[in-house]
UniProtKB/TrEMBL annotation, chain A:
Keywords: FAD, Flavoprotein. The keyword Flavoprotein applies. PROSITE patterns: FAD_PCMH. InterPro entries: CO_DH_flav_C, CO_DH_flav_C_dom_sf, Diverse_Substr_Oxidored, FAD-bd_PCMH, FAD-bd_PCMH-like_sf, FAD-bd_PCMH_sub1, FAD-bd_PCMH_sub2, Mopterin_DH_FAD-bd. PANTHER family: ALDEHYDE OXIDOREDUCTASE FAD-BINDING SUBUNIT PAOB, XANTHINE DEHYDROGENASE SUBUNIT C-RELATED. GO terms for molecular function: FAD binding; oxidoreductase activity. SMART domains: CO_deh_flav_C. Residues 1-223 form the FAD-binding PCMH-type domain. This is Xanthine dehydrogenase family protein subunit M. It comes from Methylobacterium planeticum.
From TrEMBL, chain B:
It comes from Methylobacterium planeticum. Residues 155-164 have a biased composition (Gly residues). Coiled coil: none annotated. This is Xanthine dehydrogenase family protein molybdopterin-binding subunit. Residues 32-138 form the Aldehyde oxidase/xanthine dehydrogenase a/b hammerhead domain. One of its GO terms (molecular function) is iron ion binding. It comes from the Bacteria. Residues 152-175 are annotated as: Disordered.
Amino acid sequence: MRSFTYERPSTPAEAAASVARNPEAKFIAGGTNLLDLMKLQIETPSHLVDVNGLSLDRIEPTPEGGLRIGALVRNTDLAADPRVRTDYGVLSRALLAGASGQLRNKATTAGNLLQRTRCPYFYDTAQPCNKRQPGSGCSALDGVSRQLAVIGASEACIATHPGDMAVAMRVLDATVETVDAKGTERKIPVAEFHRLPGDRPEVDTHLKPGELITAVTLPAPKAGTHIYRKVRDRASYAYALVSVAAILAKDGTGHVAFGGVAPRPWRVEAAEADLRKGAKAVTDRVFAGAKPTEHNAYKLKLAERTLTAALNQARA
Amino acid sequence: MKFDTPAGQNPIDQLKVVGKATDRIDGKFKTTGTASYAYERHDVVPNQAYGYVLGAGIAKGRVRAIDTAAAKRAPGVLAIVTTLDVPKQGLGVMNVANLFGGDEIQHYHQAIAVVVAETFEQARAAAFLVKVDHAPGAGKFDLAVEAKAAKPVEGGSGEGSGGGGEDRHGDFEGAFGQAPVKLDQTYTTPDESHAMMEPHATIAAWQGDTLTLWTSNQMIAWGHGSVAKILGIPKENVRIDSPYIGGGFGGKLFVRADAVLAALGAKAAGRPVKLALTRPLIINNTTHRPATIQHIRIGATRDGHITAIAHESISGNLQNGRPETAVDQTKLLYAGANRLTAMRLAHLDLPEGNAMRAPGEAPGLMALEMAMDEMAETLGLDPVEFRIRNDTQVDPGKPERPFSHRDLVGCLKRGAETFGWNRRNPTPGQVRDGHWLVGIGMAAGFRNNLLMKSGARVRLDPAGTVTVETDMTDIGTGSYTIIAQTAAEMMGVPLDKVVVRLGDSAFPVSAGSGGQFGANNATAGVYAACVKLREAVAQRLGINSADAVFADGEVRSGNRAVPLGQAANAGELTAEDAIEYGDLSKKQQQSTFAGHFVEVGVDADTAEVRVRRMLAVCAAGRILNPKSARSQVIGGMTMGVGAALMEELAVDTKRGFFANHDLAGYEVPVHADIPHQEVIFLDEVDPQSSPMKAKGVGELGICGVGAAVANAVYNATGVRVRDYPITLDKLLGRMPDAA
């Protein structure tokens, strides 16, 4: 870990201004991902802006009948909130499928959206990785890629977004609220929040330098069975090979997003019209143009069968 | 004490303390955080500095230059030693990879520098400032490719299994050719990491030319000699102390880079140095269980008697490395007159392959016992019955040589009855429970019992306290407790009058911990020393030792009863001895046996496998402490589930290293993966093994489990996966259509 300076600003705009001023500055909230990356010098901020004191830790109803979740609401608290459990079950289930109790106690809503990939080559500083060191190459393309992306990736990077929460947020049509150094507020649909890597895989999101997440807003609840089905090699404490976040009616109609398959939660709304025809009709459209590697081609079949499981569950 | 005739009646047979389920005597220290592991021994020497080890970023080649200028200027840095600063160091016992010194890189993350600083954080930060100029060379990293060039090799695991490049009895090819029912299949097992909880860690301190290492090591005497050899210093100038070890599984049989670099760093810094290997270094810098490609052929009569059996295994290793001895159990487990076992070794430039819990048998049985399941199905025989039908009470290659005691059949029958084997549907893919496909599988477990010389010293003080000193280690197995039980039984005192001190090279040399040989041999060594102490006590008290009864803290003879401690009134009594073995184990084969039974559920849609029930029935001689023995077996069963379903070091065959080098990427079972585990020990003794009449049991727990899981998955789904681990991607394309 490199030495860094540290401050605790008192308002979101101050925090944003502080990071905007210094290209080597980073926000820190729960630190469950950033601190690990700093120890390995994958992240080397020279200045940390601690946002934990900014009172962004409330869950409030919105006039539109939804919920506004403060950026600093801990994963544990969000998963346990009665309104979330009642009306947004897919979100509660996704949160509880991730990490461990100890990590969820620290991890925040905004931080969860910003967690970085778990690609093994991103973590090994002796190996080329375009996301960690732009221009150095992608070791995963012809390396170990069983966990990595099958769609939305590029020749420069096949990393996945590793999270569960964002997949649920995606099927819920959540909106990310931000503030910048000038105090200007912005609303970004979660669908447009994470970038695809293209030729700049080092940039994970569409946030501007210094732009601070203040909240995530959920629209009014969607009716149907809320399902989060996470498939992994062991029963707990593992990243998804494939996950399905779905809100489904008994007749199979509804909404579905996939995790573990792409650099961001993967949802193709147009394909949802085919849900009544069964899983394969949907996944054929959702994964049209997929470019799996030899190691991860199984994810296409797995995504179809996991959606089948979700449809069965909704019908039951 | 020479043990060359079977044990008769002796004080251990009283079973007042030995054989009773006993809490660990070190348990309270572990649960209160007062059992200090190597890295936590802040009190042993003042002024400890911190070391951080840097590993090579290439898998093969040379280090051209190392620039330490910036690192040396970094805050807190006291010293940096690079591999170019010192000549190639010597090799320790059992190892082939160079630990440090010189410019040659043999494998990824080979240690190339140690940075010593005032704090851990400073050492780590400075290590990132070291600039290394690597000259990469071409290497061989893909076992499947290099297997074609593999050459016959003889060798042992160092833990009891081994053999020739090719061993034959009868005419395998002829008998196999004529057999009416045949199996001919290939199975693979992956590279695995020990993934023990405690990393390799050492504190090193020099006093003049004398070096003390507080470390984490399973085999103190090996380590003691190895440190001297590697560093080129006299053995008398080295002391190793390792009282608590947070798991080893074979990964700490040897001296590794942590010990060598702590010593070199301490010398350079002029201060004691503590360091631990990071998890990536544990995976690519130390040793691992090598992957295997195993070819099995079985020929049988139509009524299921094996007439021909062949087991050939290919593994890879560095130059001069040993093979994974995966074929060894096949020499002894089943009958059959015509037999072939063979090992071949391919040259690979991956990190060093070496012993991991039950080396040989663990991966070997994963293949053999799946083959037996397949063969039983082909024969239309129940898998339990097929194994019973091919039981043998003699070494099938040398029929004049019987087993000392073998009750595999008892394990299988008791297991089948307890587990409800008769409820298994022999047609696969038939049983549903909601969205789960349910299956039951079984396998035989087998592991040899090894006899190794083991010494101990016992002391008696006037308070009647018996202190045992031996360099035996407790790697989480319960050695402290069974040694205390042995001394208590022998001297007639309660457990709380026994003090056990372990893991110090100043103590008498023991068998150490490995190859499930620790428990029987180390307690037998304590038995031998206690026999001597009993004689000394009797002599001091003027009692004929043959008449003396040691019980309830007293020594009794006729009408006389004297407190034991009284024998030490004139000064502490000390006795030292070792158990040494004759040729009993050559005349008769000593092995341990198990029946493993497993029920799994396989998700009908996603093919996720979850274990639902497990049972192990073990026949392993006298069980010294049923409680800690059970812990050993359930630990082995858990490791077997890992091997069957998830554990795999993912080889980057282009860059030459294990890519998933942390515990997020290398998955081992978590609590949620492990269901109820039941363990039954058959009530037996083996007088051929030692005065304790016990045998090893710690590795028996893993032997066969993987195949039992695999066979259960097959029974659930009808999909046979012969390449471990059985991850869902290998099942998915062949799963039955979901109803």
